[in-house]
Amino acid sequence: MKTLQKSGGIAALYEAAAYIVGMIGFLTIVDVSSVADPVQQVALMADNLAFLYILHVFVYVVWGIFMVVLSLALYERLKAGSPAILQTATVFGIFWGCVIILSGMIHNVGMQTVVDLYGKDPTQAGTVWITINSVFRGLAGANEAIGGIWIFLLSWAALRTGEFSRALNYLGVVIGAAGIISIVPALAGLFITIFALGQIMWFIWLGIVLL
């Protein structure tokens, strides 16, 4: 159990680090989302293909793997006090991890496909990218409801069992609620930001506690 808890702590710290690296990479180094024209988006990806590929592996694929580890570590830590809640939460946690892994793989394969197509037919590459990006955003990015449910249930269970500090658990409840609310399209932008920034703090705090 101690080994699993340490693995969970490392996983939580990785999750926070990946968020920070992702924000820096996607928002300040290569910001594809800032370009409105899908053909220009493909051109930007073509110019930064290797960087974006590695970044998506780091921020999505590996992130999802560590999420599965963290979900199992927290289940082991909290299951005695609230087994039903933890079983439900763990399903959402593992499912979330798998969705993020899948989204990263879809993005990278799709990105390579449209970059290859761009040299032959830029307009068609842009059209194909619209479809691929829609699938990618539907899995990871359009809202954070799955992750919100996981954090909310975990924090609720921890409050009931007295595990972790109450401040950490209340922070988790707030972050989880923000993720759930982000499913409302009109509120998605604001609450995704709250969820993402809050998660960085929550993951770091949680990682330290588990270690």
Structural class: mainly alpha
Distance between the termini: 12 Å
Helix content: over 70%
Number of strand segments: 0
Per the principal axes of the C-alpha atoms, what is the gross shape? elongated
Give me the Rg, rounded. Answer: 18 Å
In DSSP terms (H or I, runs of 4 or more residues), the helix count works out at 8
Structure description:
Helix 2 packs across helix 4. This protein has 211 residues and is mainly α. The model has no long low-confidence stretch (mean pLDDT 94). The radius of gyration is 18 Å and the shape is elongated. The longest helix is centred in the middle third of the chain and has 36 residues. 38% of the residues are buried. The chain contains eight helices and no strands.
Summarize the structure.
Helices cover 84% and strands 0% of the residues. It is mainly α.
Present the secondary structure layout:
Layout: H1 2-29, H2 38-47, H3 49-78, H4 83-118, H5 122-139, H6 145-161, H7 166-181, H8 188-210
Helix pairs in contact: 1-3, 1-8, 2-4, 2-5, 3-4, 4-5, 4-6, 6-7, 7-8
Keywords:
211 residues, mainly alpha, elongated
